[in-house]
């Protein structure tokens, strides 16, 4: 499991809501609490496409 660069996390936002993301290291996802979506991180690369995100149960 790879860690995401904290500087990258500071500049990435949810493409749908333009809000900050929360990093879930265990699931390797970036979570948008505002949109209720989790964006996957594959091979250390965040996949910031709404079509690729999964819904997060709130």
TrEMBL record:
Transmembrane segments: none
Gene3D superfamilies hit by this protein: 2.20.25.10
Family per record: Belongs to the UPF0434 family.
HAMAP family linked to this entry: UPF0434
Name used for this protein in its record: UPF0434 protein ACFOMD_18290
Species this chain originates from: Sphingoaurantiacus capsulatus
Lineage of producing organism: Bacteria, Pseudomonadati, Pseudomonadota, Alphaproteobacteria, Sphingomonadales
């Amino acid at each position: 499991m790879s860690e995401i660069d904290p500087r990258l996390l500071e500049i990435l936002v949810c493409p749908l809501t333009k809000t900050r993301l929360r990093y879930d290291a265990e699931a390797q996802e970036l979570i948008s609490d505002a949109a209720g979506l989790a964006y996957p991180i594959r091979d250390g690369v965040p996949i910031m496409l709404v079509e690729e995100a999964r819904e997060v149960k709130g």
